[in-house]
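Justification of resources, computational component.

The compute hours requested in this renewal are based largely on the per-chain cost of generating structure records like the one below. Each record pairs the submitted sequence with a full structure-token output. That output is archived, and it is also reused by downstream analysis tasks.
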Amino acid sequence: MRSRLTLLTLFSFVLSIFGTIASQAHASNADQTRGQARVIITFHHQPGPAQEALIQSLGGEVHHTFHLIPGLSGIVPEEALFGLSHNPHVAGIYLDTQVHAIDAELDNTWGVKRIGAGTVHDGENTGTGVKVAIIDSGIDYTHPDISANYVGGYDFVNDDEDPLDDNGHGTHVAGTVAALKNDTGVVGVAPQASLYALKVLDANGSGYWSDIIAALEWAVDNGMQVTNNSYGAGQNPGSAIETAFANADAAGILAIAAAGNSGNCGGKGNNVGYPARYTSVVAVSATNQSDSRPCFSSTGDAVELAAPGVSIYSTKLGGGYVEFNGTSMASPHVAGAAALVLAAGIADSNGNGRVNDEVRETLGATAEDLGAAGRDSHYGFGLVSAAAAVASVSPPVPPDPAVSIHLTTDKSSYISGEDTAAILTAVVQDENGVAVSGLDSAAFVTTGSLTSASMFFAETVTAGTYTASLDLTALADDTYSVETTVTDSRGLSATDAAMFDLGPAPVEPTTVSVDSISYTEEGGKNSNKHLNMKIALLDDFANPVSGATVSATLHHDSGSSWNGSATTGSDGTVTFTLKNAPSGCYETNVTSVSTEGLAWDGVTPENVFCK
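The structure output for this chain reads:
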């Protein structure tokens, strides 16, 4: 099949008004009604119902309202274009011209072998699960070499969820990307990638830019990682389409596109088509079995990579296999190679939250230089090498975790001198002392005298610091060793040991603490003239502490303060009274607690009172 872009000039009076509209457009009689223009309209703000109503009020029809760009597409009467262009909310008006499947000529999978994909497969990387969207004429998902990898998609030509190919171009492209490795037929570059069909080309291999914008939106919304774009047009369709591709790139999608079949045998001129010429898209030229550029392959500064594009044997619409030529056949070799690099685990090295830029850089850096040294207008950086690209990707392996253990005794958990307990805290760190997160399991096993007191944390642990209680029953004074082993989600383990001294549970209290501070008011006409502040003490066995001397300072929010000192009664409390207390807020700070045989823990509980 060979299709060429045919152009239909719009009415001259429209062209004289709209500098932003391309000077030429093409459309079939079925898509263009006399006196109407198929357009893409962009706005200064995201369009909504009001903008859709505007188009309808002019006698127009809205086909798509986009969110990847602030625009919509549809059909508008030509006489309405002048007024629409002067609407202050309208940023630009562009003809919704057609694109065509880039020439695919009838002419085995030598290309897949040439770029080293088989070597990658031998290393058990087949692109499993990487999402590749084929933006094309659909996919024959019933083909036995494709069906297992086909996941879904959308038909933007017929506006339904069945993107079945009715042309054959998309099916051939899909087979080069991901035909199954099943010892029959052909094998794709990434034979276990997940294939999605976004049908934008009709049975004749033609489609509209507005449907391509919609397909890019679908790709972003559904988490596609790579798109193959083996279609194009010779004229720049305008900034709306360029912005759509740029926004998809910013969202993390790597767009691979055929450079075009508009080249010449002399290799002269800058004839790369669109969208391949956009900076956000990887333009792919074609090579033959001799690693040379065939005459048809487009040339220009935008060419970034080259790939096999002559006598490419791949899947055929309706079953079986067929050979095609064209940059349409070269592009999916690169899309498949990108899927292999993604499956290899390439990392986000620049911290922008996406890896499509790292994949693009890797493919260029590892390409086999052809033609003139360095990047050139025929081969770009050179012939894509799936083997070299994947070999250059080393998934980051965090260092083995180093474990430090700290054990303390928690006297509040002693019970009648019979049980003792230790609180164990493990901090899992890397070699730089940074806490490691994402552990699948952390097993803490005691050794020595505590063998019977093994303890395990929960199976799923996501923080970097873990604390648990280790109960030890009826132990005498001794020094014990605890050995800890931590296993992370990679199966890597680290072991460390710590010594601790655990004595018997005390039989007498050793500390005193301020259990509470409370306030009451009394006296005066409204019973709130004076302020009472009551402090209660408890020992570490939760008994009231009498005969303790308590010193405290009462602070007022005006900056005034009052000091006092008194002794607790038999109930373990002492009360201070501030006569004629002014209105405002008060806070008490205990400055000392002294009593024979007990040490104060130095803590004042939070307290505030306002009157």
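The CA atoms of residues 63 and 74 lie 5 Å apart. The chain has four domains: 12-96, 101-391, 402-502, 511-610.
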